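Friendly challenge for the regulars: who can give me the structure tokens for this chain first? No prize, just bragging rights.
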Amino acid sequence: MKNLVYFLGSLLCAVAAAYALHSWLAEHNDPGYVLIGFGHWSLETSLTVFAVASVIGFFGLYSFFRLLGVLLRLPGQISRRRRNIKFNRSQEALIAGLFDAADGNWERAEKVLVKHAANSGAPLLHYLTAARAAQSRGALDKRDEYLQKAAAQSSDTNITVGLTQAELHLSGQQFEQALETLGKLHSINPGHARVLKMMHQAYQHLGDWEGLSKLLPSLQQHKVLMEAEVKLLETETFSRLLKQAAERNEADAIQACWETVPDHIKTVPGIANIYFAAMIAAGAGATVESAMLKQLGRHWDDTLLVLLASIETADPVKHLQSIEQWLAVHPTNAVLLRVLGKLALKVQQMEKSEQYLLKSLNIEPSVAAYQLLGEVQFSRGEKDQACESFKRGLLLASDEVVGNIEAVTG
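First reply, four minutes later:
Bragging rights claimed.
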């Protein structure tokens, strides 16, 4: 519209100028004279006619070239208009697809998203949402196809597609595939919090505690988990690694695993016990006896005491005497008295063993103490007393079983 106004304004100005020229020439009674020659051709006319013809010719040529320009641009304009229409439809399809996916209409969402992805300004979003919809309806082949198309729309350094792919693998219980993808993303951005968290989840589900132990420093450094969560995870990870090493029943492997445990985890109650129990089971209890005594001095633990008493030593009498020293600190500890009774029985100090076991039973009756007392009495030929002790142990054991069943059943 603006161009038309400019055109008409210019035409009126030209007509006014031609009229003014004609009036000026008429006042002088001289129409003017114009001669144009070209080869054997010549054109003679008055100045007024030439001026009017020039104006008409100029505006005629101008209109022609403007029309020609419009015709030349018309295919491009039509193409752009079509693209705009397709783009608007793709945007509407994206919104509709997102709503369908939110409503659980997976198949319809997938269909509409993929159909308009090529014409969208955000094809990546179309394919990623379609991949989620495909997985939700169990079409894993289609999911992988859409993820590949999404990857083709993304740059090598963009980890959006990889994050979605890993997330879908995790939700589909495909932990090995998830770790493969997450490993690539980790090499691109080692400090990405979401990548680290998903790697932690995948390692934990797979039971890959060695891989998780290597990931722990990054989880702590980048504050992916709270400090308390990291400590719990460290405790679980290294306890699992110790148990795996214990299954091999090789003292060197157990010791090597223990050396990888951070010092602040070694002090956690129960972790050291796993290590000590594994070393004792592997036949290397004598090598950790001094460490067990130090640990017991720092933190009294009945379980650790029982483990210490189970060590096979070259001098069992000395072993008994070293543990008897704890009586001065814990004279009424039933477990300590029971352990001393067991060790005294082992070195054939029957009277001492019986005294310790009777004291233990007076403080806290236990099945193990009754059994040991029966063995002491039986070895001394006191068969009736031994039978009575065994009987009391069995009754106590049955009472404990019944009590546990009642607690479970409510």
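The longest strand covers residues 34-38. The radius of gyration is 47 Å. Your move, everyone else.
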